[in-house]
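ugh finaly. both done.
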Amino acid sequence: MRLVMMGTGSFAVPTFRGLFETHHDVVALVTVPIRSRHARLQSVITPMRDVAHEFQVPIYDPEDINTPEAVGRLSGYRADLLVVCDYGQILSSEALATARWGGINLHGSLLPKYRGAAPVNWAIYHGEIQSGVTVIHMTPRVDAGPCIAQAFTPIEPEETAIEVEARLCELGAWLIRRAIDSIETGRLEALPQDPALASRAPRLKKTDGLIAWARPAAAIKNHIRAMEPWPKTYTFLHRPEEEPFRLILGPATVVEGPLAPAAPGTVIEASAGHLLVAAGQGAVSLRSVQPAGKRMMAVDEFLRGYHVQPGHRFGAE
């Protein structure tokens, strides 16, 4: 089959590389345009572009894939199938119709749960103990097409979004190849998604990293794991007669058991390498923190350089 790969982010790289291990013909990479943030930078090579250059595949990067010009360019590839992963644009019905069998999309969740741009992050945030990848037959509605393949993987208690996503993208590369084989041999089974089970996973914002200390300690730990590598979790330390200052939080441990009553966000202990903060239920022991403008440091080093004591408070600015 003639395949057009459509992807931009690093999550799509294993899928793209995996296509070259098949007998199919990859005729183009469609990706988003390079948008340099620095006027003196002439180009920024994305991971997907690196793979395209390695395998000498033409690159097409329209601002809008759904314009008549872009749809015409897609039609010119005479593709049998569009393979879409971490692309960054929604395809219209006209764009999908340019390929003989339309498009398939690899999504980093067990659809219909966590539709949207950040499925791995929100799955960890909500305390899921299992995740996976789904291949859908695409429709113009985001992540709503029928499921044609799915694979599962556990989420370990200490894993961050970085680690889970790294495993999912490799699992997804295998699943995409299996789905393409099913399409080619006519053994495709498409199961419609149940809209009643759908949940959202919107694109992350910087403000999504702000810790709400009234949540249970386990939820705060999940929040910290979920916001890697961006926007990371943060809070503000409030001390009497001093300006609040911002701290990025590193890994944390949940502390249960008998604790002195304290309002959420209150520092319970700050000594001997222990920084224990009350949550809405239980407490969180922070293992490392990063003061604004500084590097990440272990808690014992932080406590030697900053005056923190029980009764001080973490919270919003």
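ok and the 2nd:
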Amino acid sequence: MVYEKVDMVNISERPREADDRAVPGFWAGDLIIGQGNKSQIAMLVDRTTRFVMLVRIPYDRNAERVAYLLAKKMETLPEFFRNSVTWDQGKEMARHADFTVRTGMPVYFCDPHSPWQRGSNESINGLLRQYFPKGTDLSVHSREDLDRVAAELNGRPRETLGWRKPVEVFNDLLERHVSP
């Protein structure tokens, strides 16, 4: 089935608070593709905390499946952590409006051939390739495998976070949000 991306909103329309990384909940997302373009894993990274979530995308990357599975993952987050997602112009996000209706999160699209507009996810993609080398079948990895890899990445101290771990920064924000 072929989908056309309609009503795409360019990254230039994304709220300014997403640019300086001071406000959590602005996510960058991407797919890493496996052997023969036949398997894939979705990656989401919060621009403020660098917290990573991985989503198993079984079978194929049709737009309905991707929108549904990404929305299902984002629904696990508290509302204040769900501001927007920025994605490239891949056809897997052709159903971005469905994602937005389900989550309340707008999707912003980068300019074509502009990976620097999503630097956070480009960096994480490089780290993910340590676990999921190019040319391998990604479909063999279970949700539990992906959760383990995400936990390892979220447990790595980051210089950009003052050598704190993404999970620490993420949990601190959660705690501050629920505390009076």
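summary for the 2nd one i guess: The chain has one domain: 9-178.
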